[in-house]
From TrEMBL:
The keyword Transferase applies. Residues 565-777 form the Histidine kinase domain. This is histidine kinase. InterPro entries: GAF-like_dom_sf (IPR029016), HATPase_C_sf (IPR036890), HATPase_dom (IPR003594), His_kinase_dom (IPR005467), HisK_dim/P_sf (IPR036097), PAC (IPR001610), PAS (IPR000014), PAS-assoc_C (IPR000700). Its EC number is 2.7.13.3. Keywords: Coiled coil, Kinase, Phosphoprotein, Transferase. It is an enzyme of class 2 (transferase). Pfam families: HATPase_c, PAS_3, PAS_9.
Length: 777
């Protein structure tokens, strides 16, 4: 193959665009695969300069830098597609001499989107904590509601509390706008029958399911995601709900349940804090009761930073007694890192503003366990504005932080698992092919070895059916259909065509997977050629053994029949001769003697004839000279017709032959001659008196086997009456002076000794048709 042909062949399978560019940025040559549709390349690129394209602002600098340093450089760019969405690309620029570079462009849109999704998720978590750290009350709730709407890409969201049979919003917003609070009827809404820890998810048809729910009517809502909110002291009764609504149907995404938990935890905590604060402001007595009994970590600190009061729940949660905390410095219960951070960063600002909210600290319990807390505090002043005390609240966020760390670890594990799975895929001892929509997307190293390819480029982009042998394509096509429709794994054995044209047997296991966001089939293939060859050898040996067994059975049956006939046919003439001898001995007169000698002569002749017939049978059944050779039926027939020319003439018969189906075959010539003589002379011998005999001899193919048919128009045989005796020795079915019942027996023995079969189709008065199936000849 010429260098040009090789180059053309290689470029035809490379799916990425390849450009040759000189140092001025002029595109000297470009090759774009016909299936590459990421960028619209309909216009001619050769002869244009890369500086003409506004989405390649620094490309010419990268080219020059690459040539100047003589090393590969990579640059990135993006192009909007027909729908306005950005597609991202990576251009690998390789120096080709001192004045030219080769640029290979790969689409990395999927990778960029995954990176953007992770960054978006990280930013979302940061926004939740940072955006709410400096606000409380309604401002906090409004920010949380907007972030909730933004996180799920929703159209509307709200946080609402149950009030008798009403649902009153605390915050109602879009992702960038706060709406007026409203009150809705609970009856006929998705929140009518809530269960503990329920996540409400309705992907479509909200308005059809709940036609009377006011927000659905007002905004024509189709989808909804919601979660009930619980106060810590009432974990079995929802205090309210937090939900996001969609004007169109939606799809859930990874980690959405964890995000719901984070938002609901923050919302419930702040609602609880608001509730507690309102209750504290309502009554000092109620404040004191709540201070000690509410499941919140409250304590009071004096101007010097010493704890003066501690709530019961604070003591219960931390494990300390009241005496162990009263009079102690509040910061002494923190870890050394949190204490330093509080003293240097938080406390100076706190003294200026008079409050701080949700400061992350680590609190050390009495048993030594470290508890993650969000520290909030407010300075209480007397009527003259003098410092009286600090009221502090600690929120245990250990579980929330643990979940957040788990999410980060999970993402890290996903990345590690992906790398590990890629390594397992690449180095698996079993060939693996991934294909989607009839195109091979990915293969591993073992597949390259099995297919005898040089690299994955020889395989990727082709149809998987290109590698399936025609004998196995129907089964393989059905297997792929079943995998897609039934979504179950499927295994079968099939013939596999390698790139060099050789054929191997493989065991293929197909499984439905998701690849690049689309359903795909992963096929694991294992070379079982050696096993199949061994199975075929066993089957061949079994076939030969069966043939030998069948042959021995036929020989045994013939031997039994021969023994029976020999015993019967020889006993009768001998018995007759012994009776004649007894007659002669009892009456030795000349007349009797003449009678005895004449009948003895006939008996001896019959005995001789019987022995000759039996000898012919023995010779046919156990003849040693069965040498096969290539013979032509037409030649053999001519020889047979010459040998029976007088009989044919006397009978006025005609033999018609047709060997169009096949003429030549491998067979003992003497057997073919004997078979044709027996069947043709039978046709002459048993011809009808009212018409001349016509015998047809022709070949045909039946069920893939070679057959010879000899048809006559003679007397015919009653096959219903004599069907199982037609080919028996000494069996005759018509009164004919020359009928001995040996010819058909010999013909059957000859055919079966060579592994074939013979049968007859006949009707009385309508002739007979003898059909010989030669079997494996």
């Amino acid at each position: 193959m010429s260098e040009i042909a090789i180059k053309s062949s290689l470029l035809s399978v490379v799916k990425y665009p390849i450009f040759r560019v000189d140092k001025s940025g002029l595109i000297l040559e470009c090759h774009v695969h016909h299936k590459f549709d990421a960028i619209h390349f309909a216009h001619r690129l050769e002869g244009r300069n890369i500086s003409e394209f506004d989405y390649l602002p620094n490309a010419i600098d990268v080219v020059r830098f690459c040539l100047g340093n003589q090393k590969t450089e990579v640059t990135y760019f993006s192009v909007p597609d027909n729908d306005g969405a950005e597609k991202y690309f990576e251009a690998e620029i390789v120096p080709s001499g001192t004045d030219e570079v080769i640029a290979v462009v790969k689409e990395i849109t999927q990778r960029k989107r995954q990176e953007a999704e992770l960054i978006q998720y990280y930013n979302l978590i940061q926004n939740i904590y940072q955006g709410t750290s400096s606000s409380t009350g309604i401002a906090f709730m409004d920010h949380l509601t907007r972030q909730f709407c933004k996180a799920f890409n929703g159209d509307f969201s709200f946080i609402a509390l149950f009030d008798n049979k009403k649902l009153s919003t605390v915050s109602y917003a879009t992702f960038n706008q706060i709406l007026d609070n409203e009150t809705f009827e609970v009856e006929g809404s998705p929140f009518e029958n809530l269960h503990q820890d329920d996540i409400i998810s309705i992907s479509a048809d909200c308005l059809l399911i709940y036609p009377d729910f006011a927000p659905f009517q007002k905004h024509e809502i189709q989808g909804l995601i919601g979660i009930p909110l619980y106060y810590p002291d009432e974990p079995s009764k929802p205090a309210g709900v937090m939900c996001v609504m969609f004007e169109k149907f939606y799809h859930t995404f990874q980690h959405y349940e964890k995000i719901l938990q984070i938002f609901s935890t923050r919302a419930a905590a702040e609602l609880d804090r608001i509730r507690r604060t309102q209750q504290l402001e309502a009554s000092e007595e109620k404040f004191k009761a709540l201070y000690h009994n509410t499941p919140a970590l409250f304590n009071s600190v004096d101007r010097e930073g010493k704890i003066t009061e501690a709530g019961d729940f604070f003591l219960e949660t931390t494990g300390y007694t009241r005496d162990e905390v009263i009079g102690k410095m509040a910061f002494d219960f923190l870890t050394s890192e949190s204490k330093e951070f509080g003293m240097t960063k938080i406390f100076p600002e706190y003294t200026k503003t008079g409050y701080c909210k949700d400061v992350p600290f680590q609190f050390v319990k009495k048993n030594g366990e470290v508890m993650d807390i969000l520290f909030s505090s407010v300075i209480v002043k007397d009527e003259e504005g003098n410092f009286q005390k600090s009221l502090t609240s600690l929120q245990d966020v250990t579980e929330i932080n643990r979940r957040r760390r788990d999410i980060i670890k999970s993402e890290s594990r996903v990345s590690e698992d992906a790398q590990r799975l890629q390594s397992l895929f690449d180095h698996s001892p079993v060939g693996i092919i991934i294909h989607s929509k009839g195109i091979i997307k990915k293969v591993n190293v073992e597949t390259i070895r099995l297919t005898k390819a040089k690299s994955s480029k020889d395989i990727v982009g082709k149809s998987p059916m290109d590698f399936i042998h025609p004998d196995s394509q129907e089964v393989a096509s059905q297997r792929i259909h079943n995998i897609y429709t039934k979504k179950t794994a499927h295994k079968n054995e099939q013939k596999f065509i390698c790139l060099d044209g050789s054929v191997i047997w493989v065991e293929a296991m197909g499984t439905l997977i998701s690849y690049e966001g689309e359903p795909a089939v992963q096929i694991a293939i294992y070379d079982i050629t050696d096993r199949k060859q061994a199975q075929e050898k066993i089957l061949e040996d079994e076939k030969k053994l069966k043939q030998l067994n069948d042959h021995l059975t036929r020989q045994n049956n013939q031997l039994e029949e021969f023994a029976h006939i020999a015993s019967h046919n020889l006993r009768a003439p001998i018995t007759n001769m012994m009776s004649l001898i007894q007659i002669k001995e009892s009456a030795p007169d000349p007349v009797t003697e003449l009678f005895v000698w004449e009948n003895l002569k006939k008996g001896v002749a019959n005995l001789d004839e019987t022995i000759v017939e039996l000898n012919e049978v023995v010779k046919t059944s156990w003849e040693l000279d069965k040498r096969k050779r290539k013979v032509k039926l037409s030649v053999v027939l001519q020889k047979v017709l010459s040998s029976i020319k007088n009989e044919l003439t006397e009978a006025g018969g005609e033999v018609i032959s047709d060997f169009a189906a096949f003429d030549a075959m491998i067979y003992p010539k003497v057997y073919l001659e004997s078979i044709l003589i027996n069947l043709i002379t039978n046709g002459l011998k048993y011809a009808r008196a009212d018409r001349p005999p016509v015998i047809q001899v022709y070949t045909c193919i039946r069920d893939g086997a070679k057959c010879l048919e000899v048809r006559d128009n003679g007397l015919g045989i009653d096959v219903n009456k004599f069907g199982n005796k037609i080919f028996g020795l000494r069996k005759t079915f018509h009164n004919h002076p020359d009928a001995r019942g040996v010819g058909l027996f010999i013909t059957k023995a000859q055919v079966e000794s060579m592994g074939g079969t013979i049968r007859v189709e006949s009707e009385i008065g309508n002739g007979s048709n003898f059909i010989i199936n030669f079997g494996d000849v």
